[in-house]
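A reminder from the course coordinator: this example appears on the midterm review sheet, so study it carefully.

Given structure:
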C-alpha cells in the first residue's frame, strides 16, 4: 500500500469553518510525498493569508497496489 497527499480547503462562510463559500473550494494534488504537499499548503495558505475565513488542510489517500 502506498499513499498520496492532497491539499484541500478554501474560503468558508464563517470562522466556524463548516461551509465553504460557493465556488471557493480547492483540491490541489495529488502529491507523492507529504513534503511536497506541505510546500503546496504553504503557498496556498500564504496566498489567502488576508482572509480570516480561509483554511486549508493536508489529507492522505491510501492506495492499494495491484498484486
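Designed residues:
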Amino acid at each position: 500500500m502506498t499513499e498520496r497527499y492532497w491539499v484541500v480547503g478554501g474560503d468558508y462562510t464563517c470562522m466556524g469553518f463548516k461551509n465553504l463559500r460557493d465556488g471557493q473550494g480547492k483540491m490541489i494534488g495529488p502529491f507523492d510525498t507529504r513534503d511536497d504537499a506541505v510546500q503546496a499548503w504553504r503557498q496556498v495558505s500564504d496566498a489567502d493569508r488576508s482572509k480570516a475565513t480561509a483554511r486549508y488542510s493536508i489529507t492522505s489517500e491510501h492506495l492499494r497496489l495491484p498484486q
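The mean pLDDT is 92. The longest strand covers residues 20-31.
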